[in-house]
Amino acid sequence: MITSLYTISVLVLIIVLIVFLVKKRKAKKSSDLESQVKVWAKRLKITFSVFIVLLVLNIISGALSEDTEDKNQKEASSEEQKKSAEDIAKESEKEYKDYTEQSEKNDKKKLAIGKEIVAELSKLQFEKDEVEDRTWYYNSYLTNDRTIYQSYPYLSLQGDILDAESYVEQSSRPKMVEFVRFSYSGDDWLFAKDKIVVKTDSDKHTLYTEQIWSRDNSGGGVWEWYDYPVKEDTDVFMDMASSKKTIYRLEGNEYYNDHTLSQNEKNALKQITSIYEKYNKLFELDRVE
Question: What's this model's pTM, rounded to 2 decimal places?
Fold first, then answer.
């Protein structure tokens, strides 16, 4: 509105100025000229004053308009930030709820696995080392004897072993390690080296030994053995247990010797390795959380 009046005042000022000049040019007498000059000068002065007032009002209106626009932009920005904060809060709340629900489900699964482990351990013979605070659990199918040519699986545990709830939280979880003792016995030394080659129905595996084999002899007989720590290769031992024919080869300095697993050896591997697989499943559930 003020801008329109400002424009009109400019036009009026121009018209008044033009008329004043025309009148001045047409005036013949000096008295007429003087009279008309005074009249139009007064009109020009009034018009110019109106022009100045409207100019000032137009400047003020523009400033107010910019302030209003800035205010509206700030309000819009504030509203967007508010909505963004609300969206973030809702998303965080949903993530926390999902995490809590998933964590509760996993805890139930881990408790169930803990109960299964405790039940399986309760069926096994064990030997406790009070000095090291360690318990050894042995399989139910084989004789624990290093002088017998066989693969002998067993477990080493530390912690609150027979409490199913202790398996839920990683901080309180018992420590479990599976070992498979590969042993050789004969009349002559083999001097087994740094690897064991395993052949099953469907695959061929190589197990690398990280330490020197232990050796002993008595009454003309010799035996060598290595306690292999099972880590991420439980699938190898389950393959050995499920294969119809499983052979492992021990390579020495000059000769090698092959051993075919008996059914009892396969049953022992399946029994001990299945417990260890359940134990490893607990850590997989930890990572899901």
Answer: 0.68
